[in-house]
């Protein structure tokens, strides 16, 4: 029995919309698309509704994924991760709900697909494992492993299907490897960049700060998090990014303290001494909570990324970017669209490049605090 970790409700398709992905793809030619499809067990025709039809009929895409390898993180109050966001975006592309489950091994994930318990398995299974079950797969890297490995992600990541000739497989291949959506997938991978977090230099510096300084402030983080119904690991991750947990840190622009509050924000939050650790954590926690409340209409995990962006460069700037995204005809509530916009326009504004780095790093710090067993004992 699959262990369900999260379910996200997306829009319900109309009859015309439900046919769109199958009309725009050619299932019999998918082995030639982008070099991303491993064609193993084609069928000449279908006497029953295709798997794509079944997904559209039930209006739900069921995906199983193997925990770990930066595919997804489920120890937060919400799911996130490159693999999870990929599955979520594909479900949105199909105009169906996402039903996401975790399993412990590639074999368990492939079995779920083979037995019809899942539509897709997100795995790193090789061709031998797939052939054993007469399954096919679409490589997330679209035949170019560098697309993932340059971000520290596993280049073997693939989507496994029951039949390569099914329109569901060809639709996924087109989603990953062609058109504007392929650019979004690339930006998604960039946001989930794991390279710096895996660096020995980073690990040494991070571990030193976390083990030497975090114990002094952990209780204060926890108390504020409890009062505001937040995650104390998140507050610690923000503080590490802001000051490396040094209460007397001062930036070139004059912000100071553990949470690096400006004078104006400190005053608004009732903080009189920005370098007092207790006051700084209280004020920073309250301000981050305000940002989370401001974007309460956006589902997690995107809500958190928007709140962090607003903490960094102000909600006014964030909302101006969202307005520009809306003018492009894109959804301003999707973080991948926001990240793509500030990435494409970072030469115009130093704030944009700084924000990209800021949110990406806090995400990585948060994941490290939650996933690393050694640090979790602090």
Q: What low-confidence regions span 5 or more consecutive residues with pLDDT below 50? A: 3-35, 39-44, 373-378
CATH topology of the largest domain: D-Maltodextrin-Binding Protein, domain 2
CATH architecture classification of the largest domain: 3-Layer(aba) Sandwich
Per DSSP E runs of 2 or more residues, the count of β-strands stands at 7
User: What's the CATH first level of the largest domain?
Assistant: Alpha Beta
* Overall number of structural domains: 2
Secondary structure class reads: alpha/beta
Q: What share of the residues lie within helices?
A: 40-55%
Distinct helical segment count: 18
Report mean pLDDT, rounded to a whole number.
86
Q: How would you explain this protein's 3D organization?
A:
- This protein has helices spanning 15-24, 51-58, 82-94, 106-114, 127-132, 146-149, 167-177, 180-191, 200-212, 214-228, 232-243, 263-268, 277-294, 302-313, 315-327, 335-344, 350-371, 373-376, and strands at residues 3-8, 37-38, 60-66, 97-103, 120-123, 136-139, 158-161.
- It has 378 residues and is α/β, with parallel strands linked by helices.
- It folds into two domains: 3-191, Periplasmic binding protein-like II (D-Maltodextrin-Binding Protein, domain 2, 3-Layer(aba) Sandwich), CATH 3.40.190; 200-376, Lysozyme.
- A seven-stranded mixed sheet has the order 1-4-3-5-7-6-2, sandwiched between helices.
- β3 (60-66), α3 and β4 form a beta-alpha-beta unit.
- α11 (232-243) packs across α17 (350-371).
- The longest helix has 22 residues, at 350-371.
- The radius of gyration is 22 Å and the shape is elongated.
- The two termini are 34 Å apart.
- Residues 3-35, 39-44 and 373-378 have low confidence and may be disordered.
């Amino acid at each position: 029995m699959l262990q369900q970790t999260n379910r996200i409700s997306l829009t319900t398709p109309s009859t015309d919309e439900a046919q769109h992905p199958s009309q725009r793809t050619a299932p019999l030619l998918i082995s030639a698309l982008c070099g991303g499809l491993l064609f193993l067990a084609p069928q000449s025709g279908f006497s029953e509704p295709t798997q794509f039809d079944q997904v559209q009929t039930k209006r739900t895409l069921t995906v199983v994924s193997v925990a770990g390898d930066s595919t997804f993180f489920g120890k937060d109050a919400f799911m996130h991760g490159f693999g999870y966001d990929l599955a979520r975006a594909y479900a949105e592309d199909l105009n169906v709900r996402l039903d996401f489950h975790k399993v412990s091994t590639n074999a368990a994930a492939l079995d779920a697909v083979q037995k019809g318990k899942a539509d897709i398995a997100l795995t790193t299974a090789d061709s031998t494992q797939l052939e054993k079950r007469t399954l096919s797969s679409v490589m997330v890297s679209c035949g170019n492993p560098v697309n993932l490995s340059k971000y520290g992600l596993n280049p073997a990541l693939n989507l496994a299907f029951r039949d390569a000739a099914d329109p569901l497989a060809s639709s996924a291949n087109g989603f990953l490897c062609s058109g504007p959506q392929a650019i979004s997938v690339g930006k998604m991978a960039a946001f989930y960049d794991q390279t710096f977090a895996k660096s020995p230099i980073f690990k040494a510096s991070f571990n030193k700060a976390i083990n030497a300084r975090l114990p002094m402030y952990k209780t204060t983080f926890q108390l504020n998090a409890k009062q505001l119904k937040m995650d104390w690991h998140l507050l610690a991750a923000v503080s590490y990014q802001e000051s490396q947990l040094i209460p007397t840190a001062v930036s070139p622009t004059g912000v100071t303290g553990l949470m690096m509050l400006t004078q104006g924000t400190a005053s608004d939050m009732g903080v009189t001494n920005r370098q007092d650790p207790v006051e700084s954590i209280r004020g920073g926690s309250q301000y981050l909570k305000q940002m989370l409340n401001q974007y309460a209409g956006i589902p997690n995990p995107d809500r958190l990324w928007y709140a962090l962006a607003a903490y960094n460069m102000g909600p006014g700037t964030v909302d101006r970017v969202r307005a520009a995204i809306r003018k492009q005809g894109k959804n301003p509530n999707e973080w991948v669209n926001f990240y793509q916009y500030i990435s494409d326009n970072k030469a115009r504004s130093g704030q944009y490049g700084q924000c990209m780095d800021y949110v990406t790093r806090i995400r990585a710090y948060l994941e490290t605090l939650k996933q690393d067993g050694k640090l979790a004992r602090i």
